[in-house]
Amino acid sequence: MSMSSKKKFEFSKSVNIKNKRAYFEYHILDTYEAGIVLTGSEIKSIRLGKVQLQQAYCYFDKGELWIKDMHISPYEQGGHYNHEPMRPRKLLLHKRELRKLKEKLEEKGLTLIPTRLYINDRGWAKVEIALARGKKLYDKRETIKKREQEREIARKEW
């Protein structure tokens, strides 16, 4: 095996996949760090950075928290042991955190969305989930204006 083909499948030491769209679409009220139940081929794909969080959301089912529509690409060397890319995955939180979240979700207009997926210092895959309220159209316009003003200031400082 040549050096160039070896580097192709080298795992990244730090994976930090952000859901930038979440900050544009929602007002973030509170964030939580949750573990995630994965298969072997899924963690290998995550370490290669092949994850999409844009459409993902969290929901409760029978007292457990699940994440749905998080796309983890199949692992290239997975063979027939590969995973289904869009399967629902269980999130791991303490019971008191789950109870607190469930109570807050019963309020009208609140939802749970993943904002970031990363590998912590111990090598565990973690998902940062946020309790959020959807933005109205005028809020989104305000966000765009603020971002453009910051860019303009940054250009002038250059």
Automatic annotation (TrEMBL):
Top-rank taxon, per record: Bacteria
Cellular localization per UniProt: Cytoplasm
InterPro entries: SmpB, SsrA-bd_prot, SsrA-bd_prot_CS
CDD domains cross-referenced by the UniProt entry: SmpB
Cellular component annotations (GO), alphabetically ordered: cytosol
Keyword RNA-binding: yes
Single GO biological process annotation from the record: trans-translation-dependent protein tagging
GO MF terms, alphabetically ordered: RNA binding
One Pfam family cited in the UniProt record for this chain: SmpB
Keyword line: Cytoplasm, RNA-binding
Function description: Required for rescue of stalled ribosomes mediated by trans-translation. Binds to transfer-messenger RNA (tmRNA), required for stable association of tmRNA with ribosomes. tmRNA and SmpB together mimic tRNA shape, replacing the anticodon stem-loop with SmpB. tmRNA is encoded by the ssrA gene; the 2 termini fold to resemble tRNA(Ala) and it encodes a 'tag peptide', a short internal open reading frame. During trans-translation Ala-aminoacylated tmRNA acts like a tRNA, entering the A-site of stalled ribosomes, displacing the stalled mRNA.
Family recorded in the similarity comment: Belongs to the SmpB family.
Protein name per the record: SsrA-binding protein
Organism: Thermonema lapsum
Taxonomic placement: Bacteria, Pseudomonadati, Bacteroidota, Cytophagia, Cytophagales
Gene name in the database record: smpB
